Amino acid sequence: MTKDLKHLIYYRFHTGPVGKGPGNGFWAPGWRVWLFFMRCIDPLLEQWLGNLLARQFEGRNSKGVAKSITKQRVEPYYDLRAAFMHDILGMMPESIKQNKSKTILQHLSEAWRCWKANIPRKVPGMPTAIENIILRYIKSKADWWCSAAHYNRERIRRGATVDKAAVKKNLGRLARLYLRAEQERQHGYLKDGPYISAEQAVAIYNATVHWLESRKFAPIPFPPLTYKHDTKLLVLALEKLKEAYSVKGRLNQSQREELALIEQAYDNPQECLS
């Protein structure tokens, strides 16, 4: 922009006997760019030169700086897994430690996936002691997982600076926790419910009926059982099913039986609909 402005103004000075050369033209836009550049770069140059001289004379101070754990490594540093493996290997004989530790870790990962998906898990034949340790590990990890999810949601609610990926991850965690709570509520209702008595149900029903009558509610009529296009729709559906068998050269027993039923319905559509 500055160069365009300069050329726009300079072309008036480059005509006539004066011509090009120093001392003519419009110098203010270029001077303004350099002025602002120097004003911005001066503090940076002072800081960089100061750091360079301090490091030159005093040396590097690497031991005084604590190493920061990156965000990617925060959760893996949670060493429940190591404590679990220590407990498992401590109760196993030396001869079977190596070939069984990987299998137990696979059971551990599968148990954690089942907990997150709220799927009941029972491995037949697993020793009770190992099963109890796995359950204890899952409970400890679940407590930590839930507290981290609620802590991050509180930070997001307060308006703290949170990474976009962390926000999406937190939303997924809270959705999982909500679905777990809803499934537990429904299982509890099926097990112990319904939580209203027969008298309360009758009162609710009567109140609903009286309210509908007071609003002059007209019930929506149910669709007729005999629809005039039923036969056409049935024939189209059967033709679509027959197309899947027409491309196959050989059919097994179940496929032949199904094709016979389709052809029977195709020949007698009214009987099939009734």
TrEMBL record:
Pfam families: PROCN (PF08083). Residues 2-196 form the PROCN domain. GO terms for molecular function: pre-mRNA intronic binding; U1 snRNA binding; U2 snRNA binding; U5 snRNA binding; U6 snRNA binding. GO terms for cellular component: catalytic step 2 spliceosome; U5 snRNP. InterPro entries: PROCN, PRP8. Transmembrane segments: none annotated. One of its GO terms (biological process) is spliceosomal tri-snRNP complex assembly. This is NUC071 domain-containing protein. It comes from Lentinula guzmanii.
